[in-house]
Amino acid sequence: MHFDLSKKQQQLIATARELGQYNFAKRASHYDREAIFPTENYQDLRQAGFLKLCVPEEYGGLGADYQTYMLVAAEIGRWCGATALTFNMHTCATMYAGLMLDAYPLTEQQRADQHRRRLHHFGRIVEEGKLYSQPFSEGGEDWTQRPYATSARRVDGGWLLNGKKIFASLSGAADFHGITCTEIREDGMPPTFQDTVYLAVDQNSPGFEITGNWDPLGMRGTVSRTLIMKDVFVPDNEEVMPRGTYFDMRKLWPHGFITVNPAYMGIAEAAVDFTIKYLRGEIEGMPPVRRRHYPTKRMAVAQLQIMLEQTRALYHRVISDARPNPDKADIIRMYAGHYTVMENSNEICQLAIRTCGGQAMLKSLPLERMYRDSRCGALMLPFTAEICLDRIGYLSLYSMEEFENLPAPKAD
């Protein structure tokens, strides 16, 4: 699909490319090797105004829409996958509370209250350069099937939080963690999705702890450690969205839950870029040995290009489909696109390594890091590769009403 990009989109993508090419790429191996957060990259993103990329213009942001974010983030992922993946966690906080919530049927009073919330949270990002995260995984189960285990109890002036979040990207780096939790009901009834509360928690709050080691296979620069909350007090004004609306977004804006995709689309692009340069003898710091005259190399590059074009075409179609209340065909395509990017990114990296040969296994070259980073995509909730396949099957064989009313699977 060809995008007729606006001048603003072209400028934003060009800025991301410049930052990536001249800054992010040369730092990526260090962040990966040491498993440390890409702090310097975020200083660059902050200076370029990208922390406010999806903050609406009326609140001082750049006002980028969903499609623009997905294109910019993919360009960032081309140069540093961990930076693109963590950038998603920050940007989603602004999209959910901003452009996506605008499509929600709020009452006049709720809109007035949300305006005050936006002034508060967006103001921190725009005026102070604050960094938000959005951890939601709690371990053990698909969190889209039942309310969050992390609880929020109403107290005077705010909430008391208890629970944990695992794989919490930006742990230690974010100023505020957007914690999704379930309000404890006073009537004693079991909680529902409508009891979901979304609160911004200062990481310096008493009772808030970051724990565990971080030494994973890939995406090491995300530093996604575990957050523990024990009677953490959160003031009322730290509510990010109206009660119950966050979880409703999975139906209203399902494409909002595949925003990790750009990091892996970018890695796929980068792997093909590197392979072509390597075979042409154009890698900086290496002898200019050309390998393009081998028929086997040309065949492999052709396979890479075909797989990349297929992946890119579906990715672009999916992000152009994104809108409130998409139809069933769009949702099936969304899952198919998400699955395709996650799986093909790793397949492309595998083939790129085989095509370049033994040198590609060395940590002095980026392909082995891209391979490890790309392997992580299919494992990421809420939509792992297996969940995508399951839902495509369900939606193909059941009506939307039947699908929405299916009972949640029970753990053994």
Automatic annotation (TrEMBL):
- Note the superkingdom of the native organism: Bacteria
Its main subcellular localisation, reduced to a broad class, is cytoplasm
Q: Which reaction does it catalyse?
A: dibenzothiophene 5-oxide + FMNH2 + O2 = dibenzothiophene 5,5-dioxide + FMN + H2O + H(+); dibenzothiophene + 2 FMNH2 + 2 O2 = dibenzothiophene 5,5-dioxide + 2 FMN + 2 H2O + 2 H(+); dibenzothiophene + FMNH2 + O2 = dibenzothiophene 5-oxide + FMN + H2O + H(+)
Q: Which residues form the Acyl-CoA oxidase/dehydrogenase middle domain?
A: 147-232
Gene Ontology terms, MF aspect = acyl-CoA dehydrogenase activity; flavin adenine dinucleotide binding; monooxygenase activity
Q: Which UniProt keywords apply?
A: Flavoprotein, FMN, Monooxygenase, Nucleotide-binding, Oxidoreductase
Q: Its family?
A: Belongs to the DszC flavin monooxygenase family.
What protein is this chain from? Dibenzothiophene monooxygenase
Species: Paraburkholderia susongensis
